[in-house]
Specification:
The protein is an alpha/beta fold. Helices cover 52% and strands 9% of the residues. It has 3 domains: 128 residues, 3-Layer(aba) Sandwich (Rossmann fold), CATH 3.40.50; 62 residues, Helicase, Ruva Protein, domain 3, CATH 1.10.8; 120 residues, Up-down Bundle (Zinc Finger, Delta Prime, domain 3), CATH 1.20.272.10. The protein has 15 helices and 6 strands. Helix 3 links the parallel strand 4 and strand 5.
Length: 345
């Protein structure tokens, strides 16, 4: 399955086993057969709802029907797909395709090469091997379908893309700090993140900022150690100090906090002065391409001497928070200040 650098689905390349377009959830479009694959239920629900809205906007007389492939009654698909008296367009949503009965498999295979006009069949397939014959036929192009890939969102950048899409769909904006705060508050549950987006959209009228997020979800905002490091390395002293103090007030352990800084600086030191594409550098240094891209961005404005001094500061801070000093907070704040000071780079 082809993906872009941001983890979003991309059209399959010529010569691959998948001959149909593979698209992210927010690029769903009408097609005779729409395979909605992947485990991320929230994205799948969004895609299917968006397709319904698109079709209904084109023709308000759209007929919507549902089939449970795991409890399929023979003849159900062909009956629902048959032309109606007034030839209204039809949307047939099929759930539990990963649990399909033999009858559904046989009739779906027969339906593909003779799909009904003005009929859109959506097949929800989370994962598994059941019905592989049907999936292979769809992906080979039989039925003129498309695939909407709803892979699990693991990276914060992908979750941020999701939030931006939610706000864009409502013609609203969320600021950068607000976006990061919201994702941080609900980083472990996409369903809760989606619900939070809808609540903010319903309850506010202005742009959503980090202050807005703090007002609604202040008790849930958990500052990631890497967020503190990112702000400091980018020279944002005020923001990094605010994040650090929030993290400590929320019970963050100073030792992992320093470890996050050390990890980022080590990666930056490895890549400083290197040339080549992200893939080649990732292979050479045993990193993921996104880690290379991030480190190269972080390196902007840093010199050899600045990196050396930063590594020394982190080593000293590490010793202080591990028992070398009486107050672990002071060396952490000093580390953030020194790393944020671009004049020393």
């Amino acid at each position: 399955m082809a993906t872009t650098s941001r983890g979003r689905a991309a059209p399959a390349r010529a010569g691959s086993k998948t001959a149909i377009p593979q698209l992210p959830w927010d690029q769903v479009r009408p097609a005779p057969v729409v395979l909605v694959s992947g485990p991320e239920t929230v994205l799948a629900d969004r895609a299917i709802r968006l397709l319904r809205d698109i079709l209904r906007a084109e023709d308000p007389s759209l007929e919507v029907s549902d089939i449970d492939a795991g409890a399929y009654a023979p003849g159900e698909l062909l009956t629902l797909a048959s032309p109606s008296l007034f030839a209204e367009p039809r949307l047939i949503r099929v759930s539990n395709v990963d649990k399909m009965t033999d009858a559904f498999l046989d009739e779906a295979m027969a339906y593909l090469p003779a799909a009904a006009d003005e009929t859109y069949v959506v097949l929800r397939y989370p994962s598994g091997t059941r019905g592989k014959k049907l999936l292979d036929a769809i992906r080979a192009g039989t039925g003129g379908g498309i695939e909407i890939v709803c892979a699990e969102l693991k990276r914060d950048s992908d979750k941020q893309d999701f939030v931006v899409a939610e706000f864009r769909a409502a013609n609203r904006k969320i600021t950068g700090p607000g976006l990061r705060a919201l994702v941080s508050a609900f980083s472990d549950d996409l369903a809760e993140l989606a619900a939070a987006c809808q609540q903010l959209l319903a309850d506010t009228s202005d742009d959503v900022t980090d202050e807005t997020v703090a007002k609604y979800y202040g008790g849930r905002v958990e500052v990631n150690a890497f967020a503190v490091a990112d702000a400091a390395i980018a020279g944002q002293y005020g923001e990094s100090l605010r994040l650090l103090r929030h993290a400590l007030a929320s019970g963050a352990d100073p030792v992992p906090m320093v470890a996050a800084f050390a990890m980022k600086l080590r990666t930056m030191a490895k890549l400083h002065g290197q040339r080549g594409g992200s893939g080649a550098l990732a292979s050479r240094f045993g990193l993921a391409p996104w880690q290379v891209d991030r480190a190269l961005r972080d390196l902007q404005g840093w010199s050899d001497a600045g990196l050396g001094r930063a590594i020394d500061v982190i080593a000293e801070t590490d010793a202080q928070v591990k028992g070398g000093g009486r107050d672990p907070v002071y060396p952490l704040e000093r580390m953030v200040e020194q790393l944020s000071d671009r004049s020393r780079r």
